[in-house]
Amino acid sequence: MKKFWPRSLLARNSVLLILLVTLTQFTTLAVFLVFIQKPRVNDAASLIASQIVMLDKLLATVPARDRDRYVQAVQGVAQPPQHSIEIPTLGLAGFYRRYYLKVFLDSLHQQLPAGIQLRWEQAPGKKLWVKVNTAGQPYWIALAVEPSDHLSGLISAILLSVVLSLMALLTAYALQRRINRPLTSLARAATDVGKGGWPRPLSPEGPTEIKTVSLTFNHMLDGLAEMENTRAQMLAGISHDLRTPLTKLRLSLAMSEQGKSTQDDFGRYFDDVDNILQQFIDYARGSATELTQPGDINQIITELTHDFTGLGQNFSLNLAPLPVFLFRPVSVMRLLTNLMQNAAKYGRTGLEVASWREQNVAKIAVRDRGPGVSEQDLLLIIKPFHRGAGTAARHNGSGLGLAIAHQIARQHGGDLSVNSRAGGGLEVMVTLPLV
């Protein structure tokens, strides 16, 4: 049953209202037939039964010499038509008409004396045949029955049912539109928050319960915004407080009498610390505040490849044409930079960047032929601060590069996955929606 039950609230309300209207119509029809129409049929049968009994008694007293004249006057016959029936059968075709004909004949039989028989002729003309006695001789007399226009009544009932069902649908749509509009806005806003965005406050409208949910969501947004501002101020302070002594240490080292190799070693350490600080700040800051704009992602990949080539790290390109679409250019550049830096730092060989289109998404793959990571680390290395078992011992880092890239992809409505390559190495796949 659940398999066929509608999922949307509009469809469920529509089905329930239509079922309610249909049930009400059938209940009303049943009450009308049982308590109004059936008594009318019984009353009509009583009236006709009394008339038939009176006619039978009158004709029974007719003298034998006047029998032929009376038989001719009432159009009596010795036998009823062969196609006439005693009790009509019930079927789907003309059920209403046949049912009440049966009720009428049954009631008539019960109210007539035992000797009087009845038969019904459906065509060519609807006639009720009654067996009476004329001068001691039985004859069948036809009583014409005027056909009532049941078909027009049935059509009217069907039209009424259709109109009431349409009214139920319109009512369900009006109710659902009033309820669904704020719920849809709430769902869209919650999705934006889940992707790291900051939607506009919801307009409190609709029923009291919906208004309460909207106001509560707005209060939650205010609280999150306040927390974000506090975190940004704290990160700015941490960045300033930590980079200031680093700068002083650089100056002190440059003015010291240490050898050039020692100065270069300390300089690399300072660069590592500065890069780690920047990754902390990038991850905490996110990219939700950056506006989207149309751009060519293949152009960004080409420019980054040229920059890495200047640093002695050569990436081969396999770029299929991609349409211009909306994305956050600075954030996407940070995403690609992190992935290419990781490939150059940990993979070193077989560096490659590929892009192509699949239906309504753009796919970018950054590949290498390095040592790769273990299967258990594939799903974990995109988590913040998690590093592969082998890379943690060989290289310094914060474990935030892939986490930042994954965060940016999710904020664009896409995703990021890491897979081992056949023959060794890793492939980091980024999926971004084109619409």
UniProtKB/TrEMBL annotation:
This is Sensor histidine kinase EnvZ. Residues 177-229 form the HAMP domain. Residues 237-435 form the Histidine kinase domain. Its EC number is 2.7.13.3. The keyword ATP-binding applies. Keywords: ATP-binding, Cell inner membrane, Cell membrane, Kinase, Membrane, Nucleotide-binding, Phosphoprotein, Transferase, Transmembrane, Transmembrane helix, Two-component regulatory system. One of its GO terms (cellular component) is plasma membrane. Its main location: membrane. The chain crosses the membrane at residues 154-175. It catalyses: ATP + protein L-histidine = ADP + protein N-phospho-L-histidine. It comes from Kosakonia radicincitans. It is a multi-pass membrane protein. Pfam families: HAMP, HATPase_c, HisKA. It is found in: Cell inner membrane. Signal peptide: none annotated. GO terms for molecular function: ATP binding; phosphorelay sensor kinase activity. The keyword ATP-binding applies. PROSITE patterns: HAMP (PS50885), HIS_KIN (PS50109).
